């Protein structure tokens, strides 16, 4: 009979080989991710580099990645050449209102579709999903005509009120999440005499934090970077958002590319900060809010 040491040696060697292969595979995956990440990061890095250059350095051939000298005053000029902070305030106001409206309306409708049995629920849900098939280009003119009849052109109502009527995509996403929760929790609450609104507020919403985090991040990003909506509905300069303001910057200061790049960097900073602080919750929301 073979000794225990003779048997253990091949097993230890096999485990070491498996661990080595696993380590090499992990290193390869991380190297690929770093390469892809760097590839997508290069345009923003070039944007940052250009924002710190003089106008002469912007058009140098071959291009220079590290500006010399560094023109920090470009950022000062970027926020003074246009009312940058006014545009930022308008943008954040619209974004936060849209986030609040979408969270409230979409979660209420999704809870009803997922947790409250009522006649015609599935047919109406299919009708809600069907609205996702209409592209924005088709509804743009009719919606504009409706808001013009309400005399709301030039105000923030066309950009914010719609958020309080639910969004089909987020209704679908939250419905899938609510359906994955244990139904016993809701049944026990109903037996204890809790109302549906009480169950929604005290049980469903706290458990749906990962899905709500995904909703909040995507809604904020969509509102913050929206260009077409503010361009169509906001006629006065004092009501412009950053997207429209940066577009107007080109017409006013078309030759000052360093200032424009500095303003663009400041425009992207809140999005970068938001991602770094919420990436864990964001990824968790994507994973847990999928199809069930």
Description:
By secondary structure, the chain is an all-alpha fold. The protein has helices at residues 4-51, 55-58, 73-81, 84-115, 121-130, 136-149, 157-160, 168-179, 183-191, 196-207, 209-224, 228-233, 242-252, 257-288. Helix 11 (209-224) runs antiparallel to helix 14 (257-288). The longest helix has 48 residues, at 4-51. The protein is flat, with a radius of gyration of 26 Å. The mean pLDDT is 84.
Major sheet, described briefly? none
Contiguous helical run count: 14
What would you report as the Rg, rounded to the nearest angstrom? Answer: 26 Å
- Note the run of SSEs as H and E: HHHHHHHHHHHHHH
**What is the architecture of the largest domain at the second tier of CATH?**
Orthogonal Bundle
Q: How much beta, percentage-wise?
A: under 5%
| CATH superfamily caption of the largest domain | MetI-like
Q: Which structural class matches the secondary elements?
A: mainly alpha
What does the average pLDDT come to? 84
Number of domains: 2
The strand count comes to 0
What are its keywords?
292 residues; 2 domains; flat; MetI-like fold; mainly alpha; 75% helix; 14 helices
SSE diagram, text form:
Elements: H1 4-51, H2 55-58, H3 73-81, H4 84-115, H5 121-130, H6 136-149, H7 157-160, H8 168-179, H9 183-191, H10 196-207, H11 209-224, H12 228-233, H13 242-252, H14 257-288
Summarize the structure.
This protein has 292 residues and is mainly α.
């Amino acid at each position: 009979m073979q000794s225990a040491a003779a048997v253990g040696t091949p097993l230890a060697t096999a485990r070491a080989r498996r661990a080595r292969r696993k380590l090499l595979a992990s290193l390869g995956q991380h190297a690929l991710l770093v390469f892809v990440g760097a590839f997508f990061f290069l345009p923003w890095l070039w944007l940052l580099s250009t924002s710190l250059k003089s106008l002469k350095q912007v058009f140098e051939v071959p291009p220079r990645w590290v500006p010399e000298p560094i023109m920090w005053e470009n950022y000062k000029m970027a926020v003074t050449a246009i009312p940058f902070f006014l545009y930022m305030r308008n943008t954040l106001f619209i974004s936060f209102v849209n986030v609040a409206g979408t969270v409230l309306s979409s979660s209420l409708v999704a809870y009803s579709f997922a947790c409250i049995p009522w006649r015609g629920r599935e047919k109406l849900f299919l009708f809600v999903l069907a609205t996702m098939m209409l592209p924005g280009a088709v509804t743009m003119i009719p919606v504009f005509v409706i808001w013009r009849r309400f005399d709301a052109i030039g105000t923030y109502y066309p950009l914010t009120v719609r958020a309080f009527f639910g969004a089909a995509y987020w209704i679908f996403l939250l419905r899938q999440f609510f359906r994955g929760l244990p139904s016993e929790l809701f049944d026990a609450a109903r037996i204890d005499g809790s109302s549906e609104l009480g169950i929604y507020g005290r049980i469903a919403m706290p458990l749906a934090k990962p899905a709500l985090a995904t909703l909040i991040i995507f809604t904020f990003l969509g509102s913050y970077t929206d260009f077409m909506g503010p361009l169509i509905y906001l006629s006065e300069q004092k009501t412009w958002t950053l997207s429209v303001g940066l577009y107007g910057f080109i017409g006013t200061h078309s030759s000052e590319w360093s200032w424009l790049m500095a303003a663009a960097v400041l425009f992207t900073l809140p999005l970068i900060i938001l991602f770094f602080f919420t990436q864990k919750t964001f990824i968790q929301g994507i994973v847990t809010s999928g199809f069930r």
